[in-house]
Each structure stands twice: as structure tokens, then as C-alpha cells.
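Q: what sequence does this backbone want?
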């Protein structure tokens, strides 16, 4: 009996039984295409007769001896931080990022550092020729590193080559969208090919203990292209972020089975490649205008790392009937909420003003603890009052105007003090006496800035 054709969205992987002009899952137009069914896998498992009953396997309790996953340090401290302390044998990392952001540069540096420590490392490129990869290595001064290169896209050939001899400690596949497997009858880059190729490579990693890094393309909205199931199959999903106008690059982990999520590594793009930034707070605050109103220092947390960044705001009278609201590096919906709270509970009239908010350095902030710093910068710009230069702000603002406590206050204060900030201006610690710089309500913040004290009583 012939199988009915299958149609899959090439953006999100949603499957339909007939063609559709618009994908109902992701809303994309003309992204649904017909895909052929996969061939059955040929091998010992397919030759065995099917069993009517499953086999019984032993069950274990929650108590028992546990060991931390072994780690292999690559020699790149920022990369190891995001990975959770190093590469875990048999783990698979999916790395996404915009074109030209520096993914290949980062991975060739990581591969060279690990190869120079005596491990076998293979770099498989499906987009560039071997000569192009060599030219990049020469520009970075890494041509002498014993990295094994190849330009290949057939997954079966790649698995056979990596399995010959001692399995490599690290294998880089650049990129997964260019790979194809003979078990799927569709073009490279389709949902079925990406899923089938990733499954074959993950199976090899688990069987041979090889750490594999899969490079993934991204869509227009910054999401990794291809089926979402690939992100569930891998052990770690990381994104390489940055702006062409800034020389900073952020490696951020959104999923990690062997380490903390939302951990970041900071790099600086130089003429010799990506340089690690061990103290990103000092770098993000470099060149700050201390006497200018509308700037506030935010003491944030990215994963386990405390980070200080400058939030800049500009509030100006608007000649338009609908004032502009522009934000870079922060959630626009969060800005709208802070503006509404300032107007409703702080007495700050911003309805006839254009509002611009920017996170300096190209970093994107995701935690709500930046509410207080953004509010302080907005009020400072509106009143023309500079904030105190020795104060760092953090705190979440509720819809009632209350400043709510945030996590890891101690780490934020310690990082601020290390960089010379004498006072941490935020919510009072729960169950403790409020320090002089503590704020309980957004109206207190407005009153202090309007009186010229910024964060002082």
C-alpha cells in the first residue's frame, strides 16, 4: 500500500498531510514543501524479526552513587564556561548565529587549541573548501595546529571516516544544513535531511564518545533554522550573538544538560581573531560619560556571571501624535510596562515624549532585574539630572510600583564593589533591615532623582 505524501514546513518542521500556503505553526508563507518518506535503515536491527513483547529491563531507585560528567578543557576559557566547564565526551552542541558573526572563527580557534593539547580533532566543512579553511587558519596564526580538515557533506562518509582509527575527541560539522544522508530522499537543508543527518551524527557521538559541534543557520528572527526537534536531540544549544557595529561577541547557552543555562562567554573581535574577555564588566563600562544624564549602570547576572553594563535613555518632547518608542538590547514590551508604571505610580508624564533606550556595548539583557536601572535612566533623562557615578542599580518593578527583590544580590554587589561602585541601589533584602540606598517603591526613585540625589536619601 503506497504511503500518502508528507508535507513539512522548512522553517519550523511542522508536518501536514497536504500542501498549505501558510504554516499554521510558525506563520511562514510558502514554507511548506513535499518530502519523501525515509528509507528503512539497513542493518542488523532491521533484519531481526519484530517482537510481540518488549524486553524487561531493571529499574533503579533515586539513591545511589553518582559521578560528575568528565570534562575536557579546550583551552578557551570563555567557551569552556558556556559549555559548563569543558566538553563532555559524547555530548553534542548545536551552535547558531548570524552569517559572518564569527562562528567558524571561534570553532577553528577552539579546534586548534584542543588539537595542540594532544587530542585528535576533525573539522568537516560543508560550505567551504579545505583551502578556504586553511586561509582562515593562516590569518589567525593557527596553521601549525594538527587539526584534520575535510570538505564533505555525505553523513555516511563522514561517520565512516571519523570511525576509522581512534575516534576524534572533537568533531566540528559546519554546517548541519549542508549535510545529507542516503536514508532520506530530499534535498540538503530540508527538514527531513537536517533531522536524519543530526540523528546519525548524534548516534556516532554517543557510541564513540566524540564531542560534536553542529553549526546551524538562523532564520530572519534569529532562531536556528530547521526542525525544533534537533534542539531537543542535542545536549547543548548555544547562540553566537553580536552586532556588526560593535566588536563584542556574546556566546550564550540557552540549553545545557551538563551545565547552567543562560551562561555567557564574552569575546572581542580583533585582527587576530576572537580574543577572550575575562572581565567583561570593565570593558562594557569603558568610555562611559559620567556627567551625562540618562545613563545608569545595571548590575545584572548572566548565568552564574555577574555583569555590569550601562543603560542609556533619551527622553525628548515628541512632535508626533504618537510618540516613538525605540529600544535596543532590551525587551520592548518590558519598556512599555516600565513607562506605564512610572506614569501611573511615579507621577512621571511621558505620554508626549519620544523614548529611546539602549544597552551599551551590543549586549542583550533578558532578566527583569534591569527594570530599576531602565527607570532610573528614563527619569534622569527627563529631569536632566545626572545619576550618582558610584551607584549601580538592580531590581524588578511590579505593576503596583513596588520594587521587588531579585536573585543573587550578593554576587551583584560584590561585582559592583570590585569596579569601584560604593553603593548598590536596589530593593531591600527580604527579612533584613533596609540599607540607606534601598528602594521599596518606584515613587521613591523618582523623588530621589528629582531632588538631585539619584540614589541618596
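A:
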Amino acid at each position: 500500500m503506497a504511503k500518502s505524501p508528507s508535507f513539512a514546513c522548512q522553517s519550523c518542521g511542522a508536518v501536514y498531510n497536504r500542501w498549505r500556503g501558510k504554516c499554521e505553526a510558525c506563520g511562514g508563507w510558502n514554507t511548506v514543501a513535499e518530502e519523501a518518506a525515509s528509507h528503512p535503515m539497513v542493518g542488523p536491527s532491521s533484519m531481526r524479526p519484530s517482537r510481540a513483547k518488549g524486553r524487561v529491563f531493571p529499574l533503579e531507585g533515586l539513591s545511589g552513587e553518582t559521578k560528575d560528567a568528565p570534562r575536557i578543557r579546550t583551552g578557551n576559557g570563555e567557551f569552556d564556561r558556556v559549555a559548563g566547564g569543558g566538553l563532555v565526551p559524547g555530548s553534542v552542541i548545536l551552535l547558531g548565529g548570524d552569517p559572518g558573526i564569527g562562528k567558524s572563527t571561534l570553532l577553528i580557534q577552539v579546534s586548534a587549541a584542543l588539537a595542540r593539547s594532544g587530542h585528535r580533532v576533525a573539522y568537516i566543512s560543508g560550505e567551504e573548501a579545505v583551502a578556504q579553511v586553511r586561509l582562515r587558519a593562516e590569518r589567525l596564526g593557527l596553521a601549525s595546529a594538527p587539526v584534520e580538515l575535510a570538505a564533505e557533506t555525505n553523513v555516511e562518509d563522514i561517520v565512516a571516516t571519523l570511525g576509522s582509527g581512534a575516534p576524534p575527541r572533537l568533531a566540528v560539522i559546519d554546517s548541519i544544513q549542508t549535510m545529507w544522508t542516503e536514508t532520506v530522499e530530499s534535498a540538503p537543508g530540508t527538514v527531513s535531511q537536517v533531522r536524519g543527518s543530526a540523528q546519525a551524527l548524534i548516534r556516532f557521538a554517543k557510541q564513540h564518545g566524540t564531542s560534536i559541534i553542529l553549526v546551524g543557520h538562523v532564520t530572519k528572527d534569529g532562531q536556528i533554522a530547521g526542525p525544533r526537534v534537533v534542539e531537543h536531540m542535542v545536549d547543548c544549544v548555544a547562540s553566537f550573538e553580536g552586532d556588526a557595529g560593535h566588536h563584542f561577541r556574546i556566546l550564550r547557552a540557552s540549553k545545557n544538560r551538563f551545565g547552567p543555562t543562560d551562561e555567557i562567554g564574552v569575546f572581542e573581535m580583533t585582527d587576530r581573531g576572537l580574543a577572550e574577555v575575562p572581565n567583561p564588566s570593565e570593558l562594557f563600562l569603558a568610555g562611559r560619560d559620567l556627567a551625562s544624564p540618562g545613563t545608569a549602570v545595571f548590575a545584572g547576572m548572566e548565568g552564574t556571571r555577574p555583569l555590569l553594563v550601562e543603560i542609556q535613555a533619551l527622553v525628548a518632547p515628541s512632535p508626533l501624535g504618537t510618540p516613538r518608542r525605540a529600544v535596543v538590547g532590551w525587551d520592548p514590551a518590558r519598556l512599555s510596562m516600565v513607562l506605564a508604571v512610572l506614569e501611573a505610580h511615579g507621577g512621571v508624564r511621558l505620554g508626549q515624549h519620544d523614548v529611546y533606550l539602549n544597552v551599551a556595548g551590543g549586549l542583550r539583557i533578558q532578566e527583569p532585574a534591569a527594570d530599576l536601572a531602565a527607570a532610573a535612566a528614563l527619569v534622569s533623562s527627563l529631569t536632566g539630572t545626572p545619576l550618582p557615578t558610584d551607584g549601580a542599580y538592580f531590581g524588578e518593578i511590579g505593576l503596583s510600583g513596588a520594587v521587588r527583590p531579585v536573585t543573587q544580590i550578593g554576587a551583584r554587589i560584590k561585582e559592583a564593589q570590585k569596579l569601584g561602585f560604593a553603593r548598590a541601589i536596589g530593593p531591600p533584602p527580604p527579612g533584613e533591615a533596609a540599607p540607606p540606598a534601598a528602594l521599596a517603591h518606584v515613587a521613591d526613585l523618582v523623588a530621589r532623582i528629582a531632588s538631585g540625589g539619584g540614589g541618596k536619601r
